[in-house]
Amino acid sequence: MLTLYDYGNSVCCQKVRITLREKGLDWEAIRVDLFASEQYDPKYLKLNPKGVVPTLVHDGIPVIESTLICEYLDETFPDPPLVPKDAARRAQMRLWSKFVDEGLFEGVTEISFSAMFRERMKSMAPEMRERRFQNIGDPRRRDRFRSTYELGVQSPFVFHAVYAYERAFTFMEATLAERGPWLLGERVTLADINMMPFVARLAYLGLLDAWTSTRPHINAWWARTQEWPSFKRGLADLVTETEFGDMRTHGLTVRNDIQALIAKLRGK
After folding, report:
1. Looking at the predicted structure, is the pLDDT value of residue 97 above 70?
2. Residue ranges of the domains in the chain?
3. 61-64, strands of its sheet edge to edge
4. 56-78 burial, b for 16+ CB within 10 Å, e for fewer?
5. Does domain 2-76 have CATH number 3.20.20.190?
6. Predicted TM-score of the model (pTM)
7. Paired strand residues for 6
8. Cβ atoms 17, 234 nearer than 8 A
9. What confidence tens digit (pLDDT) does each residue in 103-134 have?
10. Is residue 63 helix, strand or coil?
């Protein structure tokens, strides 16, 4: 039996759901409301000591970290394969996991927070807002969120986020031009699935073309992704019209600042 502790618009949960859909698996979904701090409930922390989503429980055994969950699913349910058999190609696939885990995860969090969740926190009572900061748990995450709350797009952490995407997209455009149509060639792998939610979030915020207007291979990859059934069923179809509207509305409020940061990185 598979149980997924999940939050709908979490990019890490989306990555796992896309993988589950492509594997044709059934699972029980248990919603963990991040805005109600349910991830810090002692019962949940026994499953996931980091207090984050997602957590997959398979036959009573918890598996945490979305990148590890996706690889676990591929090893446990090998058809259709999403990880190359060849060691060199597996290393190439995991390079995209590194881009996500060491840059894009924090990056998309800071961009989303500066555009959307910052406004929600502004409307909170001061004591509730402070409790939210304390509940973050990890001091590094708390410092990032506090900086982005106080400075918005001008936080240095947002600049780091813009750089992480610029670095990843530079390599992604070159890789697709060489191998295409997917990141490792003819078939979708976890390399593509790792990237899908992180590209989708920028697109839904109305910010993607700020990076990709001169990157045709990424634009073709994104168009292909949007038509891929497992992406639709694992991500796009589950985003509500209200969530789409909120993301687009708030994303446009930071678009000019994001474009200015990209131009700064490119020396323009």
Report:
1. yes
2. 2-76, 87-265
3. 28-31, 2-6, 55-58, 61-64
4. bbbeeeebbbbbebbbbbbeebe
5. no
6. 0.93
7. 31
8. yes
9. 999 999 999 988 877 777 666 667 766 666 66
10. strand
